[in-house]
Design brief:
This protein is mainly alpha-helical. It has 12 helices and no strands. The structure holds zinc ion (2 copies).
């Protein structure tokens, strides 16, 4: 059987996807890490979520696992490209086919689908029998830095991105829209693992803040969502003191800013 691509083409796609994925992650996570953990160490100390961390941060170990996950994500994206070459996906390559409104709408739909998928996949990974084998590694980072954003066990890395495969078979997605979504995901995921709270208190009610996910790392229960604080509220998996803690950090930061 003749393949609709050559091995060199596939290697090239894998190389480009891996380089772009790793490059944008290093740029974004590096900028936030440098800005908060070095430049802001003293200046933004009041915004630090763990004022007295019980465990040290392990950015190099986080980075190592994030690079490994990004390699796996790239292989999965190559799989998507291969399926597309066999004409099995709804992926399209010309923006004009569906227009810019759909291009933007598809990014929003990906975020909503991923957000809900993540809540239930994350709860599944907290099942005691699954946790040990799949999700424990990510929870080893009690005091996370931006480099922990993709620091997963390989099995978790596969679960994290599995949602895109069925979606790409059903919904027209432009590769550029997928790339925009990945950048958005990285920025918001890096903020979740920042270790510093940057949002005003009212945001905590509706969105996932750094404090929301930091509490998930320190306490290991509840707080399963990615972007919107919807399922956690509906299912009662928010910590009762979450919003008060975000408020407390904001008040501390305001007090420290006064001359
Ligand atoms: Zn978890
Ligand atoms: Zn995390």
């Amino acid at each position: 059987m003749m393949l609709p691509f050559t091995a060199w083409e596939a290697m090239g796609v894998l190389g480009v996807v891996f380089a772009l994925f790793l490059g944008h992650f290093l740029l974004i996570a590096g900028a936030f890490y440098g800005g908060f953990w070095f430049w802001g160490r003293e200046r933004l100390a009041a915004r630090r979520i763990q004022q007295q961390p019980l465990r040290a941060a392990r950015p190099l170990r986080e980075l190592l696992y994030s690079v490994l996950s990004i390699a796996l994500f790239s292989v999965m994206l190559l799989g998507l490209w291969v399926l597309d070459r066999f004409d099995l996906t709804a992926i399209y390559w010309k923006v004009s086919e569906y227009g810019w409104i759909w291009f933007l709408a598809s990014i929003a739909i990906m975020a909503l689908v991923h957000d809900s998928y993540y809540y239930w996949a994350h709860r599944f990974m907290h099942h005691p029998r699954v946790f040990r084998r799949v999700h424990k590694l990510h929870h080893g980072f009690h005091n996370p830095t931006p480099f922990a954003s993709y620091a997963f066990h390989p099995l978790e890395a596969i679960i994290e991105v599995a949602w895109i495969l069925p979606l790409a078979l059903l919904m027209p997605i432009h590769p550029g829209a997928l790339a925009c979504y990945v950048v958005l995901l990285t920025v918001l995921n890096v903020i979740s693992h920042l270790g510093y709270e940057t949002y005003p208190a009212w945001v905590a009610r509706w969105f996932i803040t750094s404090t929301h996910h930091n509490l998930h790392h320190t306490r290991g229960r509840g707080h399963f969502m990615l972007y919107f604080n919807i399922w956690d509220r509906l299912m009662g998996t928010n910590a009762h003191d979450y919003e008060a803690l975000v408020e407390e950090i904001n008040l501390r930061a305001q007090a420290s800013a006064r001359p």
